[in-house]
Design brief:
By secondary structure, the chain is of the alpha/beta class. Helix content is 42%, strand content 14%. The protein has helices at 27-42, 46-66, 77-80, 100-111, 150-164, 168-181, 194-209, 214-218, 221-233, and strands spanning 71-75, 89-94, 117-123, 130-135, 141-146, 240-243, 249-252, 268-269. Helix 1 crosses helix 6 (168-181) and helix 2 (46-66) crosses helix 4.
């Protein structure tokens, strides 16, 4: 009698089991398929997007009341669409004609009037002073800075790169989730922030576009993910820095005075819209 068919046991919520292996002589093809399913599983729902839209609208009403004529703009991963349910919402107030730290303390007083807002903190000593708080109902964290429009311009540039390099979104979301699960995404504790991570993935895609196998690599996310891990694992971060301008290049940090003798291991990545930063 033929052996009884064993029931399929899912190893993860997105797992399709043999679908990743059947007919896949190359395991990278199976990895490619699983990446697609994983990204579909972790991407935010419509409801999660609407909750963030509502929080932005409430914050905009508050800032408009405090500074008539001002504008509240969204930047960062939420504005580019490259965000996860765990991602923060980054905002900037422009045209408010106020001292940044004083403005943030005024905003703090207004936010404190809302029962669903908590953990309100002004970080006035940071290079870019910000205020951070949580929506207690959803756990979403928001932050606001004042008159720092660079983030808006950079976000527009990243959105353009996502259009130019379709693999950017799935690769970035997988890596963001990987770092988040291991508490390695907080820059204040030495982690890799969203901006730096995005630039390193763009650097990889730029280098592959210059090669003869770009079309094949672009169609296989498994190949690209392994190539990314290989690139960053072998990266000479004590010597080299990353630029994604004009097609991308690797430069010697010493030529720009970016090599810090006390902390030579710091990963250096040029701001694409301001090469001196």
């Amino acid at each position: 009698a033929p052996a009884a068919t064993q029931p399929f046991k899912k190893l993860s919520p997105w797992d399709r089991g043999e679908a990743y292996r059947a007919g896949c002589l190359d395991k990278r093809v199976g990895l490619h398929l699983e990446i697609l399913d994983f990204v579909a599983y972790i991407k935010p729902t419509i409801a999660e997007g609407r909750r963030r839209e509502n929080l932005v609208d409430v914050t905009r009403q508050i800032t408009a009341k405090l500074w008539p004529g001002s504008e509240l703009k969204v930047y960062g991963s939420y504005s580019t669409g490259l965000w996860l349910p765990s991602s923060d919402v980054d905002l900037v107030v422009v045209k408010c004609d106020a001292h940044p730290v004083q403005a943030l303390h005024r905003l703090k007083k207004e936010l404190a009037k809302f029962s669903n807002f908590g953990n309100i903190l002004v970080i006035g000593s940071a290079k870019v002073p910000i205020i951070k708080w949580n929506d207690l109902h959803s756990g979403i964290e928001l932050s606001v800075c004042v008159e720092m429009a660079d983030g808006v311009a950079n976000s527009k540039w990243v959105a353009e790169q996502a259009q130019a390099f379709p693999p950017l979104e799935p690769l970035l979301l997988v890596l963001k989730q990987f770092l988040y699960n291991r508490d390695l995404n907080d820059t204040s504790s030495g982690g890799v922030g969203s901006t730096l991570l995005t630039m390193t993935v763009i650097s990889l895609l730029q280098s592959r576009k210059q090669g003869a196998d770009y079309e094949k690599a672009e169609s296989n996310l498994g190949v690209l993910l392994m190539d990314y891990l290989d690139m960053m694992g072998l990266f000479e971060n004590e010597r080299d820095g990353i630029s994604v301008r004009d097609g991308g290049l690797i430069f010697d940090k010493r030529t720009r005075g970016w090599h810090k003798s006390g902390r030579p291991f710091l990963l250096a990545c040029e701001d694409p819209l301001n090469p001196n930063k």
